Amino acid sequence: MQLTLRIPKYVLEQARQDLARPHSFAFERVGFFRCRPTIQPKLVVISGYDAVPDGEYMFDSTAGACIGATAIQSALQRILTHGSGQVHVHWHEHDGPTGPSRTDLRDQPRLVQSFQNVDETLPHGIVILSNTHAWGVLLLPGTKRFQEIKKISVVSGGIEFL
Amino acid sequence: MSDRYQRQSFLGAGSQEKIERAKVGVVGIGGGGSHIVQQLAHIGFQDYVLYDPQTVEDTNLNRLVGAKVTDIGKEKRMVAKRLIKGLQTKARILTIADRWQNVSEPLMFCDLVFGCLDTFQDRDEIETFCRRHLILYIDIGMDIHEAEKDPPRMAGQVILSAPGAPCMKCLGFITPERLANEAAKYGAAGPHPQVVWPNGVLASSAVGLAVNALTTWTAKVSAPAYLSYDGNLGLVGIHPKAEYMDSTICEHYPLGKVGAPIFQLI
Known about the structure:
The complex is a heterodimer of chains A (162) and B (266).
Chain A: E1 4-8, H1 9-20, E2 30-37, E3 43-51, E4 57-58, E5 66-67, H2 69-82, E6 85-91, H3 102-118, E7 124-129, E8 134-139, E9 146-148, E10 151-155, E11 159-161
Parallel strand pairs in A: 1-3, 1-10, 6-7
Antiparallel strand pairs in A: 2-3, 2-6, 4-5, 7-8, 8-9, 10-11
Chain B: H1 15-21, E1 23-27, H2 31-43, E2 47-51, H3 76-87, E3 92-96, H4 105-108, E4 112-115, H5 120-132, E5 136-145, E6 153-161, H6 176-181, H7 196-215, E7 225-230, E8 235-238, H8 240-243
Parallel strand pairs in B: 1-2, 1-4, 2-3, 4-5
Antiparallel strand pairs in B: 5-6, 6-7, 7-8
Helix pairs in contact in B: 2-3, 2-7
């Protein structure tokens, strides 16, 4: 079975709307999907989206967006409060397939590993959206290596594959 | 797009790729499910999970699409597999001769599931499963009711149940009364009355909903869809309950309640 992530369209639209808003100094926005495991580790489902409030961004000229300790603590707390994994999400504004930048690869895996330190029974990960596609990796329960998501589908009354 | 699908190119650019990428589950490949499987194979679906624990009996041959007299005693899943392979030689087909509840993991990975089930209990369970795993579920079913002085009434339904949208309980199709009463009798014209033509109508409607959900060729995708079939008049229409729903929000399956259930000590 291939690693699959399913996102309700409503939640994806919520994320896109938030991520598209300009910030006073950050070049881009980031957010967090809440995710839940299923009894099959290779299937993970998204259950919600949490935006990072404007005041929790920090100025950093070397990154599109840099979030502070409060935003990260909030994500860590959601793991404990809601029993949901955290998937860091941001948007590359172009059409077609997308992937991580060097900065994404430098910073985000460490953040996700800290999520796993809070609850290693939940999946956590990174998703990058483009206008038409998405790329993502997950740190699955009981594993220390990121695995690339092979199928990301968006579900409403219809089905889209990103 | 290969020449084979030229006549369905109106479905839109990239539609065949979407169809080929989708994994479909069909639970119950008897009268209704066999029609569905046949149509999916014609359309070009490549990835199947099929459930049916039964073997072909003489009494199935009035409606089991693809079955031959020589198939009596063989498993229905093998008939379905042969049907698909006859049209899609490279199709990936997982067949399971068991109830889906006993081997549910393959069903989780399906993008959409067709339920051709006999009981409301089964429908209720599979809808709950699909909601938890964010799977589009399409239910078909028919029944024949005997009236005292009038001819028997043939009726059926096709319901598309999508995560976040009103469910079969919201639509009034699954009710506590039906769940409680169904064990006593199934239809009034005998046990499991089934004939081939209403199954064909219902399966075609269901496959139409599925193709639209994937390709959005009508430019209109909405959930739920609740179609009712009047077999005496030969009409399929939108069920009044779907037309006049009070709410578009499902209270039975909130979107936040997905994935494995959480158990908390209190």
